[in-house]
Amino acid sequence: MKENELEYYSKVANWDFSQIKCETEKLTEWDYFEEIQKHTNEKSLCLDLGTGGGEKVLKRYPKVGMLVATDFSKEMIYTAKENAKNYPERNIKFGVMDNLEMKFPGEIFDLVSARHTKIDAKQIYDCLTKGGTLVVRGVDQKDCWELKKIFGKGQGYRDKKAISEKDYEDIVKAGFSNVKKYEILMNEYFQTEDDLMALLLKVPILDDFSEIDGDFDKHLKSIDHNLFKEYVKRFKTEKGILLERVLYGIVAQK
Predict the structure, then answer these.
(1) Cβ distance 202 to 221 under 8 Å?
(2) Which tens digits make up the pLDDT trace of 72-82?
(3) Domains, the chain, ranges and CATH?
(4) Whole-angstrom Cα distance, residue 72 to residue 232?
(5) Mean local confidence (pLDDT), 112-138
(6) Which among 42, 61, 43 is positioned nearest to 51, based on CA atoms?
(7) What percent of the chain stands above pLDDT 90?
(8) Which tens digit of pLDDT belongs to each residue from 23-81?
């Protein structure tokens, strides 16, 4: 499954969403980068897991002493390093690493952040300083639920336990204290069908990595056109084509 996911993200190494025309309406107030800022200062040493093409951390990560930003796709990290050329003032070092096979000394980072990626809570616990903080933002099972129902598939669609519940339990089990979980709700309105399709071709909302057949070029283009049209017809509004997002945030201390 991990190899499938790695190959998937390698195929979409251009992770830039800037060309997708979409307006976001926040329904809850919790903000990932604001939470990171609450627990860091200009001397903090931080680790960001699953950083992708680096656009988010380059634009929004708080000013800290040093940020090590990693992803298990070398293509993503290549993209991140190219993007970093536009931000010479940012003290960020990008590198390739598997989140589930972390290779850092114990008790080195003041904060570890993980956005929309798999984590090993025990490994994170071990590399955090005493009193250090873990901040997670993830995609929950009910994310884009109406879209998944129309297609009859999608990330977490048939899971017996929501990803947020599993992450929370794993973080508590690893030894973290003061673990808090937050629901993040938002509506995204896509200006055109092409904008929504562009998103679906870049992120695995409608995919289950365990079922990918290995033909990734074909797989990335396998979205059923008729089902897509049905969704657009049902959820087209004056603001645009609605996609209901359900995410989660977790904050914990060592």
Answers:
(1) no
(2) 888 889 999 99
(3) 2-253 (3.40.50.150)
(4) 34
(5) 96
(6) 61
(7) 72
(8) 999 999 999 999 999 999 999 999 999 998 899 999 999 999 999 999 988 888 999 99
113 contacts: CB under 8 Å, gap ≥ 6? 32, 36, 46, 47, 48, 49, 61, 134, 135, 136
Token pair of 127, please? Answer: 């590399």
Q: Are 214 and 188 in contact (CB under 8 A)?
A: no
CB 69, CB 92: distance < 8 Å: yes
Report residue 173 as tokens.
Answer: 């089990």
How far the first Cα of the chain sits from its last, in Å, is 30
Give residue 250's identity as a one-letter amino acid code. I
Q: Which residue from 94, 72, 97, 73 is spatially nearest to 83, judged by alpha carbons?
A: 94
What is the structure's pLDDT at 213? 45
Q: Which amino acid is residue 122, in one-letter code?
A: K
Q: What is the mean pLDDT of residues 101-125?
A: 95
The count of C-alpha atoms lying within 13 angstroms of the C-alpha of 163, restricted to the half-sphere facing its C-beta, is 22
Question: Quick count: other Cβ atoms within 10 Å of Cβ 149?
Answer: 12
DSSP 68: E
The contacts of residue 137 (CB under 8 Å, 6+ apart) are 32, 114, 115, 116, 184, 247, 248, 249
Q: State the DSSP H helix or E strand holding residue 123, giving kind and residue range, or none if neither.
A: helix 121-127
Provide CB contacts within 8 A for 166, sequence distance 6+.
Answer: none
Give the Cα separation of 183 and 249 in Å (integer): 6
Q: What is the mean pLDDT of residues 6-30?
A: 72
Q: In the chain, count of helices (H) and strands (E)?
A: 10, 9
- pTM, two decimals, is 0.86
